[in-house]
């Protein structure tokens, strides 16, 4: 499958939002299914695009295959990025497009953006323990686990801990 990675167009916001939401729902990553509050955030690509750079993978036939949010440092979309760090968030690939290099290409595009930034020395991200295919992509690209940065997005719920990874840029 041939595809291109580029910034999302406003006309693709709804499609990418639904791909992201369905990826999380179908993979069992939301504790409360359709009633999960985070689902609204996953679908709100316009909000992400206003505060960060949303990248999209688009097939040669125009179909949106997936996307990722590149956060170039501190700001409203950053969860864990500190000084000199960029962050990758909400990486999702449509189920029909998985195992074709789309997720890795999106991560690589985020890394290219980070390398082009003045003062960026590291890229960080958070992931759930069950996102094993994402872990393999991150580790293959040189990310390492940073367990000292693991965190709880919902402090009142003990069984949700996000694992963190970092890649120091050359």
From TrEMBL:
Gene3D superfamilies: 3.40.630.30. Keywords: Transferase. SUPFAM superfamilies: Acyl-CoA N-acyltransferases (Nat). Residues 3-170 form the N-acetyltransferase domain. Transmembrane segments: none annotated. PANTHER family: GNAT FAMILY N-ACETYLTRANSFERASE, LD18367P. This is GNAT family N-acetyltransferase. It comes from Streptomyces thermogriseus. The lineage of its organism: Bacteria, Bacillati, Actinomycetota, Actinomycetes, Kitasatosporales.
């Amino acid at each position: 499958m041939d595809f291109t990675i580029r910034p999302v167009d406003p006309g693709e916001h709804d499609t990418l939002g639904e791909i992201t939401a369905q990826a999380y729902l179908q993979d069992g990553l939301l504790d409360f299914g359709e009633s999960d509050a985070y689902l609204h955030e996953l679908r709100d690509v316009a909000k992400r695009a206003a505060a960060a750079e949303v990248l999209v993978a688009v097939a040669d036939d125009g179909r949106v295959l997936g996307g990722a949010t590149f956060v170039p440092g501190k700001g409203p979309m950053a969860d864990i990025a500190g000084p000199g760090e960029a962050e990758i968030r909400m990486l999702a690939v449509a189920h029909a497009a998985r195992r074709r290099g789309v997720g890795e290409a999106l991560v690589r595009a985020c890394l290219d953006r980070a390398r082009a930034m003045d003062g960026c020395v590291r890229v960080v991200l958070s992931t759930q323990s069950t996102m094993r295919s994402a872990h393999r992509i991150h580790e293959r690209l040189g990310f390492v686990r940073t367990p000292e940065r693991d965190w709880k997005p919902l402090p009142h719920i003990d069984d949700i801990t996000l694992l963190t990874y970092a890649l120091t840029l050359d």
